[in-house]
Automatic annotation (TrEMBL):
Keywords: Coiled coil, Cytoplasm, Gluconeogenesis, Glycolysis, Isomerase, Pentose shunt, Schiff base, Transferase. GO terms for cellular component: cytoplasm. This is Transaldolase. Transaldolase is important for the balance of metabolites in the pentose-phosphate pathway.
Amino acid sequence: MLKLNQLASLGQSIWYDYIRRQFITRGELQKLIEKGLRGVTSNPSIFEKAIAGSSDYDEDIKELIEQDLTVQEIYEKLVVKDIQLAASLMLPVYYKTNELDGYVSLEVSPTLAHNSHATIDEAKRLYKLLERKNVMIKVPATQEGLPAITELIGSGISVNMTLIFNIDNYKQVAEAYLKGLELLSERGGDISKVSSVASFFISRIDADVDKEVNKRNADHLKGKIAIANAKVAYQIFQKIYHTPRWKALEKRGARVQRLLWASTGVKNPSYPDTIYVDGLIGKQTVNTVPPATFNDFMDHGSLIITLDENIEEAISQLEELKSLDIDLDKITNQLQAEGLESFSKSFENLMKAIELKIENIKEERKPFRVITSGYQASVENSMLELKMQRIVERIWEKDYTVWGDRPDEISNRLGWLKSPDVSLEMLSDIYEFVESIRKEGFKNALLLGMGGSSLAPEVFSKTFGTKDGYLNLEILDSTHPEKVLEYNKKFDPEETLYIVSTKSGGTVETFSFMKFFYNQTLAKVGIKNVGNHFIAITDPQSGLETIAKELKFRKIFLNDPNIGGRYSALSLFGIVPAALIGVDLDKLLNNALVMVCNSEGANCPIHGDNTPAKLGVVMGTLAEFGRDKITFITSKQLKYFGNWVEQLIAESTGKIGKGILPVVGEEILEPEYYSNDRIFIHLKFENESANDESVEKFKRAGHPVVEIILKDIYELGGEFFRWEMATAIAGWKLNIQPFDQPNVEAAKILAREMLAEYLKEGKLNQPNPNFEMNGIKVYSNDYSSDITSLFNNQLGRNAEDFRERENQYIAIHAYVKPNESVDKLLHSFRTLLQKKYKSAITVGYGPGFLHSTGQLHKGDAGKGVFIQFISTSKNDAAIPDNAGDEKSTMSFGTLITAQAFGDRKALKNSGRKVITFLFDGTEIEKSINQIVKAFN
Ligand SMILES: O=P(O)(O)OC[C@H]1O[C@](O)(CO)[C@@H](O)[C@@H]1O
């Protein structure tokens, strides 16, 4: 028997908490009905994502514009049609189950929730408009909503009472329902023809209660209260529907108002993903599940009655909560108010989204557009392949076989699919923390981290800036001693919060920063206060978690361990730093959710507009044709997004002899300076045209271009997700496992070996240079003894020679203190190289890039040439052996030099060409200038 039918035979019906046009019209809903699905629920937030996140409704909107309707009227037409279509599909279920199931719910506008009359009028109007028997009108269970239920049931309209969190509120809802049946009977109506469910919310209760439980160190109650509360509600349900009053109604054909478990998607990633389905199975109940939970349940959910089990335990858990002074009534009342507010906000956003759609349609604006140039047929074939193999659906089903034969480092790396949802649930906790920080007068936040732990925070800090009254956030990801010392001077520890951010909890750079700044802060504020200046963001049970506890950090944020660094922008790694500078995270994450909806399986890239899938297919397909240098042309303000996406693409795709090279921050030149290995991404804001002309030239020259136009910076929420999904899909196309980084370790091992030798011998064992040039030591793989022959031998005399030597790109690695003037110099050298070799040139600061593009450099097809600039340091800084201890056996200067030469060796070991220049820290600019001149 089908799993859902088995569940139904235990007395529980599964409904689907999701709707959108193509999901209905392209047969997905029908398929689920065939699997035993018994109902559908919607809410303003679901419609917001569906309409804003897809082009499913565009045709209808076009027609409706012609009819001169208002935005509100257009909205209504769209949703009424969806509900009608879904209700028609559900009708056979309605009949087959004798009108028990087969319902589709539509919510009255949440803005009316505090007005009984308005709610009643609106519900009646919608019911009439829908013209279907198997619909339920959803009404929020506010005090004003209670009379509405009585009147609506009394009028023969089926009702789904929603946003119930609280036991007393549930009793009121049940009472209002009984009154409604009595009223209908008095009015001579047929009470057997009316139906109702009481939507009792689950996971949000745990999210809020867990915060309080945490504060009281009562871990055993974590993740328990939502289910305990529901079990108690179920006991009450059973009592109510055994009273003589009920029996009298039942005799006349009345149906019980079933408890419907809502909000049953898991928000805390450390809980089992089907906990709120498995734990709530009982007779005469419904569970409405979001798509992800549906998939999880179908895959491994259990089929055992649990609602009647361990009632005593549930009651004692609730009692214990009371004894801990946690007021569940207060929390649940607050949750209802917040729920209403959030639905009202979604409703407002939905209206804005429709307005924007109308504008876009009228002006024929396309915020995402692919110009494939000569590759249209191949891209279309790949799209078909993607569709036939159900790749997008399988990604959402977390099917590791999309990328490999084994689940290792895939199955436990897909947490990012849920990040926007999970993070939204954590906002109240994060905001509470930020308020405490602001109150205590912290002015600066210095984030200590590498790669995926630092690049998204940098995007937030550089793109959004600091809101008034929030902290100034800067990022330290350079171990160059002068950079470390610069921050030591720039930020007064007394006013600074240090964010130690590392997924693995053991990254050497991050730990070195942490120990250094801990000691500096300790000296300034004393042992009692030092922990107050530090927070950690890390995975559960990491080395950092242990140390942060020992050192009494003021807060430890534990992230979902199923998310890799480069996929962590929308998880705690990105959003905690963003909250500290006052980014409106609700807006950002909701924007990401619109993109989540856009990337769903139901939104087929061929028939729908699944832009992440399209982008991924384009990236993968063109890379197979040798267009594997993805070049970003961005608005100035979006520059740092380029750095984030650079790591995502490079580290995900650059392995097993393949890879897509991201090129960011290149000067835009005339088309003649580019080879046929490029695809351009033009990422800009609307009403901005600075680079339009150049991009047109690239199109005319036959380069494929993807245009992405953002309305405002908050759309970056969606952009993070779009690129994550696209990269995962490009991985599928290229037959690459996008979530591991097999070559990163090589450089780390070699650097560690050098450091071990240093500790033994008291000096770093560096190789011998090939030659010296005015104090600059030059290292190379060949036997050149002057710089001109070196460049000619390694790079080539001109563009043709460069290619003949099987070179495709040059990566400049600068192990120097990053600053503006060095930046300028490096970029002018980059342009010179590009002009001469007509090839992609990238620039990265070491050791930062090792955690970003370093994987690709050693893992790709080996067509890169590497130029290292390494400077010694005027001043060095000691790395304490342990936090709180003066003793030091190594300095930042030693560490960075070991890393540079370690990487040189790793590159050489992988057969890459490497040219290294080592010069004095007092003469960085002079030395780089000299090298550039010699090249010229
Ligand atoms: O967050 P962590 O564990 O410190 O890692 C930082 C970065 O280092 C890498 O593991 C590469 O070394 C990246 O994948 C990651 O983003």
